[in-house]
Specification:
This protein is mostly beta strands and 517 residues long. The protein has a domain of 86 residues: Thrombin, subunit H. Helices cover 11% and strands 32% of the residues. It contains four helices and 33 strands. The strands form nine sheets. Strands 18-19-20-21-31 form a five-stranded antiparallel β-sheet, with no helix packed on it. Strands 3-2-1-30 form a four-stranded antiparallel β-sheet, with no helix packed on it. Strands 4-5-6-7 form a four-stranded antiparallel β-sheet, with no helix packed on it. A hairpin with a 4-residue loop joins strand 16 and strand 17. The protein is globular and about 90 Å long. The relative contact order is 0.08.
Length: 517
Amino acid sequence: MAAPTPHLAVRGSDGTFLLRGPPSCQESSAFQKDERQGRYIAFSSDGSLFGWCNGSQVSVIKVSTGDLVKSFDLPKTTALEFSPLNRVLATWQQYTSKKTIANKLHLQKVSEFALSPGSQPSKVAVYVPGSKGAPSFVRLYQYPNFGGPTSALANKSFFKADKVAMLWNKKATAVLVTASTEVDKTGASYYGEQTLHYVATNGESAVVQLPKNGPIYDVSWNPNSSEFCVVYGFMPAKATVFNHKCESVFDFGTGPRNAAFYSPQGHILVLAGFGNLRGQMEVWDVKKYKQVSKPQAEDTTHFSWCPDGEHIVTSTCSPRLRVSNGYKIWHYTGTVLYKHDTPSNKELWEVLWQPFPTGAFPEKPVKYQASPSELGSTEAKPAQAYRPPALRNKPQTASSKLHEEEPPQNMKPGAAGEKQMSKAALKNQKNSVSAFETKPDEAPPPVADSAPASHVTSSCGDPETDKKIKNLKKKLKAIDELKEQQAAGKVMQKNQLEKMQKEAQLLKELEELELGL
């Protein structure tokens, strides 16, 4: 049986239409283009129905034939959505109050919630911000069991959270919670501070440990619901795949990226750098953790996978960007199969793939050779790091690099011939580094001599300078005491050695102050 052909819905200032494809892309003959400006478009969850509103009415058709199912005289509608079983169409317009409450969760100060995807029983995650020294918390409930605190499936409390973003996995077994503060009190980041928490419906929870400091740009669940990818850290950002135990599985190293997109089948992952980055994309085979292609789509404001797991669409839409609007349909090997440039006097507002039931498109083996196309590919050229004029004619060294690049690394136990260290082993290793004992038969590490007698002065005439000199002499005296302890064979701490190694610098500062430099 031949696989179905997905459709792409396109909404813009010149109307709404359906594009049939890929790989061959053309306007659907079953759907007559609506020339009026579309306000909203939506497919049913199984992709059999398509609805849109155009400022005059709401219409629903069968995608396969284009037959009109129903039209509604609702000119003020600005949003619509089909129910999970495709039997009800919900529309939104200016708010009106109706008493239709079937059940209610009695929990004070709820500021965010997220409904689980998939079939019933439905679950909901709710967030309550902390106040007066009390922590914030996220609780998971299963509808309609909302009766009291003991009815919660799981509870996770934490500090440092002004707002959160909650993301369910496909099977509704766990939620990833990105907690953010508006201000980073340490001053390390302009964007505030962020932490990632894992909360499962079986009651388990954990903090996801991210080895690089900086913002969390994106979090994405694999459709298999057992792994997730996080893009994080100051640029160039890291990307890491974690399992449901929050253990790192694969580290993609560093690169210009801020987003992650799994294919519907979960066998391919695209890491991308959109927005203020230049549209670089890295396509990875998730099972082999091998890179497939590295195309580039500049000025992209939207990315989405086709349900077939073979194709993607990138688009530049208004109002995010009002120039160079248009969209491209790609094969994941980097080939552009179809391209549409919106006329300069028109705007593109949205593109949307037709969804299909799970299993409609089985997973296919990953290809590494680019698919043929007249439009070719747009392989990203290696970016050249900025180098000051004085270094441009000299060999590049590690010290001349703006950022230290990290290569991809398989983090699974035994992947590189070694087993991953347990948390206890890592803690013991850290403790062994933080303190050590000088052996009797080993010479102590070399340190600078004490301050010479010529540095002893009564006053230089400036009270502020005298104060600085006094503080420096106190530090030098403390270092001399540490030397005596070392000579006696006492245990040395790592921070003590660091203070000793700073002695030469302190002496220099002292000399400059006393000479009036």
